[in-house]
Design brief:
With 338 residues, the chain is of the alpha/beta class. The chain is 33% helix and 18% strand. The chain is built from eleven helices and 14 strands. An eight-stranded parallel barrel has the order 7-8-9-10-11-12-13-14, surrounded by five helices. It has a four-stranded antiparallel β-sheet with strand order 2-3-1-4. A two-stranded antiparallel sheet has the order 5-6. Helix 3 packs across helix 4, helix 6 crosses helix 7 and helix 10 runs parallel beside helix 11. The longest helix has 17 residues. The chain is elongated, with a radius of gyration of 23 Å. The two termini are 44 Å apart. Manganese (II) ion binds next to loops.
Length: 338
């Protein structure tokens, strides 16, 4: 951190700043210019808060010079992370498409969905048993029974399952049901207690970007998980809130190259919750693969018109299979495999 002293700062002000730096276990480097004195704090400056210095007498500004995130930063880990999900690699050359219904409804629906996901050539399946719904009167998910239906359906094709954890009290149940990938939904991106708990387990986590979260906030949320010891984190951009109302959310394609530069963690795109309409999903999915995404999280329902949740945005099994064909060509064009 660099602390810029005001032109009229006294020696006592400067000494107080130095004392505070030393109290935090860092060392100082004072640079006296003709107009201003700068104090560099040497050591792990993440322990220091800009606002603590900025309210001290004689201080004009305090500026962090390193990134606030450490474990997830690309600068500390130049190679991209490949997350191993029961032998299926997410990150690296291979692009993974995780497909399935918004929510688990019935055992029969999950069997049909699993067959569709497998037939399309996808290796991982999604489905929500605990649903974060805007209305408390809307279908909230089947809960534990949903996990059972999901596990049973995916077993037939030996597909790892991805499902959302909303409540930290359900974490043990998720582990007992051998959930392969824990999804943290957009609305919980900054539920720090939940992030800390999934940071302690040895299961891959898909962390979805909050509706209005900045890239830096997303990376700090990932850092919470990583700080607990769990480095198997996959980031997911799922569309952000803007002034636009013509579609559900704006898919922030720009986030892909920016995240790839800032972090070594794999990045997947959810074109379904971004567009909010099934007809938009193929275009957004193709754009994501072209822009360097490591995977996609796509909603598919055996019979979208009958879906209990997000019916408008679900692809049919046939549409998913068609999409996979065009995605393979794009993946090839950008030096990836699918
Ligand atoms: C979901 O993937 O089912 C979901 C609820 O997504 P999000 O958290 O991005 O809204
Ligand atoms: Mn959904």
């Amino acid at each position: 951190m660099i602390i810029v002293m005001s032109p009229n700062a006294s020696d006592a002000d400067l000494n107080a700043v130095i004392a505070r730096i030393r109290d935090a276990g860092l060392a100082e480097h004072v640079s006296r210019g003709t107009e201003r004195t700068l104090v560099g704090a040497i050591g792990d400056e993440r322990k220091l808060s800009e606002s603590v210095f900025e309210q001290m007498a004689g201080v004009e500004r305090a500026i962090h010079i390193v990134k606030p995130y450490k474990i997830v930063a690309r600068e500390n880990h130049p190679d991209g992370t490949v997350v191993d999900i029961r032998g299926i690699k997410l990150g690296g050359k291979q692009i993974q498409v995780i497909a399935g219904p918004c929510s688990v409804e019935t055992q029969a629906q999950m069997h049909l969905a699993a067959a569709g996901v497998h037939a399309a050539g996808c290796k991982l399946m999604r489905g929500g048993a605990f649903k974060p719904r805007t209305s408390p009167y809307a279908f909230q998910g089947l809960g534990v029974q949903g996990l059972e239906f999901f596990r049973e359906a995916a077993r037939e094709y030996d597909m790892p399952i991805v499902t959302e954890l909303m409540d930290v009290r359900m974490l043990d149940t998720f582990l007992e049901h051998d959930v392969d990938v824990i999804q943290i939904g957009a609305r919980n991106m900054q539920n720090f207690d939940l992030l800390k708990e999934v940071g302690k387990v040895n299961k891959p986590v898909i962390l979805k970007r909050g509706l209005s979260a900045t890239i830096s906030e997303l990376l700090m949320a990932a850092e919470y998980i990583a700080a607990g010891g769990n480095h198997n984190i996959i980031l997911c951009e799922r569309g952000i809130r803007t002034f636009e109302t013509a579609y559900r959310n704006v898919l922030d394609i720009t986030a892909i190259p920016v995240l790839k530069k800032e972090t070594h963690l794999p990045v997947v795109i959810d074109p379904s919750h971004a567009g909010g309409k099934a007809w938009m999903v193929p275009a957004l999915a193709r754009a994501a693969v072209a822009a360097g995404a490591d995977g996609l999280l796509v909603e598919m329902h055996p019979n979208p018109c009958e879906a209990w949740c997000d019916a408008d945005q679900a692809l049919t099994p046939e549409q998913l299979s068609e999409l996979m064909v065009s995605l393979r060509l794009i993946a090839q064009a950008v030096g990836r495999e699918l």
